[in-house]
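Dear H.,

Thanks for agreeing to be a second pair of eyes. The structure we're designing against is below in token form, covering all 249 positions.
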């Protein structure tokens, strides 16, 4: 979970962001009290001054404060961090319900489909799609450096490959697999637990596609999915290595 003060900062920034006009410390304090925080207006003012000093907020005369562009970016980061922490227990439960074999079966299907999508993307990707994919990689790197969730980045990267492949049937097949909305967060949680990462895999796939080397792109994707499968198996060995838990569940 987020530390209490960090959570408080997150909620204060959300209150400011959700307002159409600049807001003052009194308004913010009243909102915090309604959300269960026992906080004085003076304490609220001190936190707001901290946000000012960090460049996250700015005063608009005597009307109150707005978020700066830096503050908006920080809020987005906090939202991602809050979400991954908030759903931590839910993800553990989802992993148990989904089960080891179902995750592996999903990855087997992904390997068959996405290896061909990567191969086709290397042949048909456009210059604009290359730029968009590179931007996704850059954002993912930024999120990794800051310790933030990359589940959304992962989805965007693989979807970009599907679209670049120009094969509607395979793209639709991947969309069907993605309907299990928790798969990317589940895999991200597992990778963190086994201290693994996918960023290098994504970069290798991207470089192969950009080089328009279809065989290399296919192999890079196969290697990526197989690495995910290894992480799943390793997670089960670490967490469920006891006689009371069936290794296939």
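And this is the sequence the design step returned. I haven't edited it by hand at all.
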């Amino acid at each position: 979970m987020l530390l209490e003060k960090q959570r408080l900062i997150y909620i204060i920034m959300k209150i400011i962001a959700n307002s159409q006009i600049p807001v003052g410390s009194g308004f913010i304090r009243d909102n915090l009290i309604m959300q269960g925080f026992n906080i004085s207006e003076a304490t609220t003012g001190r936190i707001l001054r901290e946000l000012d000093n960090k460049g996250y907020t700015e005063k608009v005369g005597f009307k109150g404060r707005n978020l700066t562009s830096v503050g908006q970016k920080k809020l987005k980061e906090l939202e991602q961090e809050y979400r991954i922490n908030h759903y931590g227990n839910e993800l553990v439960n989802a992993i148990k319900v989904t089960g080891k074999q179902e995750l592996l079966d999903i990855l087997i299907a992904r390997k068959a489909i996405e290896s061909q999508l990567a191969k086709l993307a290397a042949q048909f990707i456009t210059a604009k799609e290359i730029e968009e994919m590179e931007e996704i990689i850059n954002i993912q790197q930024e999120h990794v450096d800051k310790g933030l969730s990359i589940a959304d980045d992962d989805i965007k990267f693989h979807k970009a490959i599907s679209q670049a492949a120009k094969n509607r049937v395979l793209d639709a097949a991947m969309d069907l697999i993605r309907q299990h909305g928790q798969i990317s967060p589940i895999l991200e949680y597992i990778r963190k637990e086994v201290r693994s990462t996918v960023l290098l895999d994504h970069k290798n796939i991207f470089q192969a596609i950009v080089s328009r080397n279809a065989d290399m792109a296919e192999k890079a994707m196969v290697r990526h999915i197989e690495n995910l499968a290894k992480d799943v198996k390793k997670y089960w060995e670490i967490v469920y290595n006891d006689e009371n838990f069936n290794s296939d569940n």
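Two observations from my side: The chain has two domains: 4-78, 88-239. The chain has twelve helices and two strands.

Warmly,
E.
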